Amino acid sequence: MIEEKLRDKEDKDKDKDKPRRVTLQIQTPRGLWNKKLPKDAALRPVYEKTTKIQQIIDDARTVFKFVENDNKYTLFIGEQQLEPNRTIVSYHLEDDALLILSVQGGNA
Amino acid sequence: MIPPEVSLDSIKTELTDALAYAASANLKTDVTTLSETNLCFYVTFHNRDRIEFYAEFNCTDYPALPPTIEFVDETRTQRGAKNLYPNVFHTNPCICMRYNRKAHGEMGGPHGEWRLIDWHLATPGGGPIDSLAMMISDLHVKILNATGRMN
After folding, report:
1. Under an 8 A CB cutoff, do B125 and A104 touch?
2. CA B132, CA B99: separation in Å to the nearest integer?
3. Taking the model in full, what pTM does it have?
4. What is the pLDDT of residues A76-99, one digit of tens each?
5. Which of A44, A66, B52, B104 has its CA 20 to 30 A from that of A99?
6. B42 touching A (Cβ < 8 Å)
């Protein structure tokens, strides 16, 4: 029992040391968004790890002026599609992780 | 029509973003064939089962007119056959998007209601796709979700 409590405390202490924010890179069809690019970006992709994926999509759309609401915007890491309602931490995304913002049109 | 040197210049300008996007999405590209006399480049898409689909972007008269996007075989000797297409497109076979010249009625495609010069407008069910990088992005997601080749 005491050992278990000690282990819990140790785990919590480890979490304390982990950074709560993460800096991402997002490749879009209109360019790369990261700490430095685009130069004139009003936002940078630095997020609390509890941020939802939808927020990153919204911010990337703002930075690159993807104003067309009828297109579908999705974030991928590799071939994995990220669910908008999940958080950054749930995907274990680390600093400088490269995400892809895809833009999908219709289909006639 | 658009002088080839003007088209080539436009394509090269747009390729910066298009190639960066393609590289991030692990799509192979070949732009070595691009010249004033051959305004074609190639992108290899794949689905989640790693089946590869080879797309040719023929950008003659781009950007006044959209590219003709056709699926070819790996050696680029066969083109337009159904089995070269992923099974997510019109079974003509054709990528039925305004940004594909082949889809337009003026070019013998199924969409007589579209005008070639309006290629950058929205296709039903979505918004505008108005650059080579956006086309690659649109195709990337659609083909990723294909379950295989068209029969």
Report:
1. no
2. 9
3. 0.92
4. 999 999 999 999 999 999 999 999
5. B52
6. no
